[in-house]
Write a structure and sequence with these properties.
2 helices, 2 domains, 3-stranded antiparallel beta sheet, alpha+beta, about 100 residues
């Protein structure tokens, strides 16, 4: 992982067509502006992971409706529930 230090209004460039600019720093939050081609999908990590999980569920259901497929689906859903349940604890610990 490359780690960079940037100030407000400073940027980094990725490849020939992506520029990320620090717009503001407010407490522990950093606002970033991303200039990239319109055809490039840009998602927050938690949204990207949710999309990936949905795709995995769709593939499991489309492949086979046998009981072991449902077992894998139940495990996936259970792990998601556990993650969601632990997130409030994590946030409380950060306070």
């Amino acid at each position: 992982m490359l780690v960079l230090t940037r100030k407000v209004d400073e940027s980094i460039t990725i490849g020939d067509s992506i520029v990320i600019t620090v717009l503001a720093v407010e407490g522990e939050r950093v606002k970033l502006g991303i200039n990239a081609p319109r055809d490039m999908l840009i998602l927050r990590q938690e949204v990207f992971q949710a999309v990936q999980d949905q795709v995995k569920i769709q593939h499991l259901l489309a492949e086979d409706t046998e009981p072991d497929t449902f077992s894998e689906l139940r495990k996936l859903l259970a792990s998601e529930s556990e993650q969601e349940a632990s997130e409030p604890e994590k946030k409380a610990d950060d306070s």
